[in-house]
UniProtKB/TrEMBL annotation:
Molecular function per GO: AMP nucleosidase activity
Protein name, entry field: Cytokinin riboside 5'-monophosphate phosphoribohydrolase
Recorded superkingdom: Bacteria
Source organism of this protein record: Oceanipulchritudo coccoides
Gene3D superfamilies: 3.40.50.450
Residue ranges the record marks as coiled coil: 61-99
NCBIfam families assigned to the protein according to its UniProt record, in alphabetical order: Rossman fold protein, TIGR00730 family
EC number: 3.2.2.n1
UniProt-listed InterPro entries: LOG, LOG_fam, LOG_family_nucleotidases
GO cellular component, one term: cytosol
One GO process term, biological-process aspect: cytokinin biosynthetic process
Pfam families noted in UniProt: Lysine_decarbox
Catalytic activity: AMP + H2O = D-ribose 5-phosphate + adenine
Family to which the UniProt record says this protein belongs: Belongs to the LOG family.
Length: 279
């Protein structure tokens, strides 16, 4: 055994990388994602967030229009489209239909950030928080950046989604391995939630939050805004939940469906002012 190896042996457990990455150290890694995140939030004096999320596939309206126009031009000379061409065209049209929500999210984030920055509190209150990825998450962080404010990105390590969007404030960039720890930080500091059209991940976050509030595991009052009545009423019949007796009529008051940034902004600001600022 060389002198260099002898001096380094035995390694301290908290410096043993092989152990820290082992199944036996899973609880330690979970604690790290809880404690390190909390320390950074405390250093930045962050106690309140407005969480915004939706589809990672949503793109800016201008980009969606350009992509569809490019496809239509490419297919214009074809007498018969292949199944692949048809699917590509269908997806481009769907992206264009969904694209306005990117702009809505960016505009709402901009308005809420401007409002937050106007508060006289010494704390950095009601910062925009997203999942840090593309789509609606990017729009949320982008709107805050445009307003000149900070925003949070709670990223998650996924094989098909690498890195955070460029609009997340550098000192507020996070990358989680464990979904449930990331969910904890979404809910723990959230004072409002805005949900835009999205897929399974969006539904997961929405219904988990509704369940926690319904069962009073989250005791604070959190306004939940569902943006886009065409989407929400098209994929979910909330009244049917009541008709089948699986939720109470009063549970429909846990959220509000809106179609404009002005309506969403007024509802959230009025709620937060009453429940947090005036108290």
């Amino acid at each position: 055994m060389t002198k260099k190896i002898a001096e380094a042996w035995p390694p301290r457990a908290y410096k043993n990388v092989d152990f820290l990455n082992s199944p036996e150290a899973r609880q330690i890694r979970i604690l790290c994602e809880l404690e390190e995140t909390e320390r950074r939030f405390k250093e930045e004096n962050i106690e309140d967030t407005i969480v915004m999320f939706g589809s990672a596939r949503t793109m800016p309206l201008k980009e969606a229009k350009s992509r569809l126009a490019g496809l239509e031009k490419r297919f214009a000379g074809k007498k018969r489209l292949s199944q692949k061409d048809k699917e590509e065209l269908r997806l481009a049209k769907a992206n264009l239909r969904n694209a306005p929500y990117y702009n809505y999210a960016m505009d709402l984030s901009h308005k809420l950030t401007k409002w937050s920055m106007s508060l006289t509190s010494k704390q950095r209150r009601f910062l925009i928080c997203s999942g840090g990825g593309p789509g609606i998450m990017e729009a949320a962080n982008r709107g805050a950046r445009k307003a000149g404010g900070a925003s949070i990105g709670l990223g998650i390590s996924l094989p098909f989604e690498q890195g955070l969007n460029p609009y997340v404030t550098r000192d507020l960039q996070f990358e989680f391995h464990y979904f449930f720890v990331r969910k904890w930080w979404f809910i723990y500091l959230a004072k409002a939630l805005v949900v835009f059209p999205g897929g399974f991940g969006t539904m997961d976050e929405l219904f988990e939050t509704l369940t926690l509030i319904q069962t009073r595991k989250v005791e604070k009052k959190v306004p939940i805004v569902l943006f886009g009545s065409e989407f929400w009423n098209g994929i979910l019949s909330f009244d049917t939940f009541v008709e089948w007796g699986v939720i109470s009529p009063k549970d429909l008051n846990l959220f509000k469906i809106v179609d404009t940034t002005e309506e969403a902004f007024d509802y959230i600001v009025k709620f937060l002012t009453k429940e947090h600022l005036l108290k």
